[in-house]
């Protein structure tokens, strides 16, 4: 779940955990120093955090996304099983990472528009592609 430490991501994550889901959360490098605090504030009230796996990831970097998904695969998917039905593949990808700006459209610099596209479209695409590669 890219963006799983944020408000929307943690709300969705809490609901999924109530239904028995294990979570793999990708968090941005700028959140690294506050990872534990954000994890506790977003998920701590629901109890034990042992079923939440976290991976630092710049979703706008193909290398960073692939490294995070490689780590996720090694940690969560049982590579020793030869039967695909016995491997614990993630079944759902929820992209909640995003960039928001409150600038007026007529005064926003072009770089801000590029940031919107890079994070909200390109980042989503990179994460979706990496997730789909896990499924094959």
Automatic annotation (TrEMBL):
Work out whether the entry's keyword set contains NADP. yes
Q: Name one GO molecular function term.
A: oxidoreductase activity, acting on the CH-OH group of donors, NAD or NADP as acceptor
Example GO BP: fatty acid biosynthetic process
Q: Which SUPFAM superfamilies match?
A: NAD(P)-binding Rossmann-fold domains (SSF51735)
Which top-level group of life is the source organism from?
Answer: Eukaryota
Q: Does the keyword NADP apply?
A: yes
Q: Where is the signal peptide?
A: none
**What are the protein's UniProt keywords?**
NADP
Q: Which PANTHER family match?
A: NAD(P)-BINDING PROTEIN, SHORT-CHAIN DEHYDROGENASES/REDUCTASES FAMILY MEMBER
Q: Name the protein family.
A: Belongs to the short-chain dehydrogenases/reductases (SDR) family.
The molecule here is called: Short-chain dehydrogenase/reductase, putative
